[in-house]
Description:
The chain is α+β, with helices and mostly antiparallel strands and 511 residues long. Helices cover 56% and strands 9% of the residues.
Amino acid sequence: MAFWLLQLALSSPNISLAIIIALCTFAAWYGLLAFRSWHRLRQFPGPWFASFSYLWGYFAMSTGRMHLRLAEEQDRYGKIMRIGPNELLVYDPQTLCQINNVRSNYDRGAWYNSIQFDPYGHSVLSEPDTAKHDKRKAKLAGGYAGKGAVDLEAKVDSQIAVLVKLLRSKCSGKEKSHNIIDFSRLIRFFQVDIVTLAGSGEPWGNLASETDRFDFISIADSFVPFLHSFMMIPTLRDFFASKFFLKLAGPKHTDQKGMGRFLGIVKEVVSKRFDESVCDRYTQGDMLDEWINNGLTRRECELELAIQVPAGSETSTTAIRGIMLYLLSSPPVYKKLQDEIAVGVAEGRISSPITNEEAKRLPYLQAVINEGLRMVPPAITGFPKKVPAGGDILCGMFVPEGTDIFVNLWAMLRNRAVFGPDADVFRPERFLECTDEKKAELMRSIDLAFGHGRWQCPGKTLAWLELNKIFVEILRACDLQIVNPQTPWRCRGYSSFLIDDFWVRLIEKAT
Length: 511
């Protein structure tokens, strides 16, 4: 095409002049836009290319090394840096608390349009209108907190029992090859079943069958690199979330595969529940019942269930995988945790299965969980908030209104000013060998991994129930060994982590 235009220009002086004028006009227009983009946040340091183009963020994200790239850049530029024409990135915990506190007047930006898992409506995760978000979240809160007839702990116990039974059968089997498993995939099955059981009263059955029922996991994994990368470019983000594109190529609940099939499953579950009598609904004891009782409409329930599986399964799955990898990679830590569990069982302080309250009273277990969350946080970056009218002071610098503020969780949880010079080392003892005041400071940063204030993750209660139980029950059932020490897993970092090929050997416990 370029060659053809050149030939045409050379053959006709008038066309040549028109093309030159057009190109010069475009260059001037683009240069003006680039200058305006650079000038608005010119006082903030950051990669030069990012100051006027969204392509820097796109290419950084598409590498699958976003967590490492952002950490490198933040080491160079400081606690607040520029990552786009209208985007800043911070890792300061005080700033994050300031932005996310309950009375904050920060709003969500246009970025949230790209995380509508049901593309035809907003869930509480993607709702950009703060008033609507607060109203919806208030109705959801009881279900997520295990209020009413929702017994979250019993549901977690039931699925951990399935997991433990499966692990024991594999490590005691005659076929030695059966005791080598992809822990990352098995925990993914476990997590999807937990979320579907807690949300709608029936697990999908992925774990018991060891299959990706409905192809949800394979679809989600193939979509993450593309989704997270194009989210960095507003033009692409707006196009793929537009009504035009969704009508043209968006998923439909009548589809037989892909995202549409998943939305169809959600629609069917909600429809069945709304058609049941009130007496039948009360027997389910799941979040969906609680939401209906709190006044959520049929459509709102569909939207919340649609986001619950991807959001609820990915974050907790990442946390469990990360904690387990660092635990297995640290023999002294592994031994100390095993000893704490053994003593607790012998002294009658640990039931079968362990209760949430019992787990909270195991100091080394709590230190291992918090340190593991620090090393591999459930998310890396994302969920930006928009600076309110009049601007604000962040990290000692004035930020103009309308700027999107991203948080770098990876860097925040490895901040040497908070966690010490060995912040890159997995050392649970840091939570035990410090003053109460210092521990409170460490815990404030860890808690921010689940959001804060108005924007706190609604699934935090369920996540902590799982974390408090699963490591105790797995280590009581069997021992684990990393199969490939040189490359224990395959980990890619986008806005969140994509982890697979985490192969472990299961070893039967001596009786």
